[in-house]
Amino acid sequence: MSIARAERLAARPWAARLVKPEALTGYGLISPAVFLMLVLLAYPFVLAVSISLTDRVLGEPGKFVWLENFLKLLQDSLFRQTVWNSFVYTISTVFLKLVLGIILALLLNQEMPYRNLVRGALLLPWIVPTSLSVLTWLWMFDSLFSVVNYILLGLGLISKKIPWLGDPFWAMVSVIIVNTWRGLPFFAVSILAGLMTIPRELYEAAETDGARAPRQFWHITLPLLQPVIAVVVLFSTIWTFADFQIVYILTHGGPINATQIFATMAYDVALVAGRIGEGSAISLFLFPALLVVIILLLRYLRRE
Amino acid sequence: MRKMKQGLVHSRGDGRISRRAFIGVTAGATAALSFGTFIRSGLGAAKVNVLTWSNTLRAMDDVLREQAKQYTKEKGVEVSFEFINQTDLPAKTAAAVESGAGPDIITLWSDGPHLHAKALVDVDDVTASLGKELKGWTNIGKDIAIVGKNWKAVPWGIIPIALTYREDWLKEVGYSTFPDTWDELLAASKKLKDKGHPVGFSLGRAIGDGNQFHYPLLWAFGGAEAKKDGKTVAINSPETAKAVDYRRKLYQAGETEDVFAWDDAANNRAFLAGAVSVTVNAASIYWAAKKDAPPLREVTNHSFFPKGPAGRFGYSTAISLGIFKFSKAQKEAKAFIKWLLEPKQYSAWMGIGEGMMAGLLNYYEDDPVWKKDPKLEVIRQIPKYVRMPGYPAPPSRPAAEAMIKFVIVNMFARAAKGMATAETIKIAEQELKEVYGKA
Amino acid sequence: MSRKRFRIVRRIFGLYLPLAAFLFFALFPFYWMLISSFKGNPELYNLQANRLWITHPTLEQFQELFAKTAVLQWLWNSFFVSFLTSMISMTFGIMAGYALARLRFPGAQVFGLATFVTYLVPTTLIFIPLASVVQYLGLSNTIWSLVVTYPTFLIPFCTWMLIAYFKSIPRDMEECAMIDGCSRIGSMVRIVLPMAIPGIIFSAMFSFTLSWNEFVYALTFISSTTHKTMSVAVPTELIRGDAYFWGELMAASLIGSVPVALLYSFFMDYFVSGLTAGALKG
Question: Radius of gyration of chain B from Cα atoms?
Answer without folding.
Answer: 23
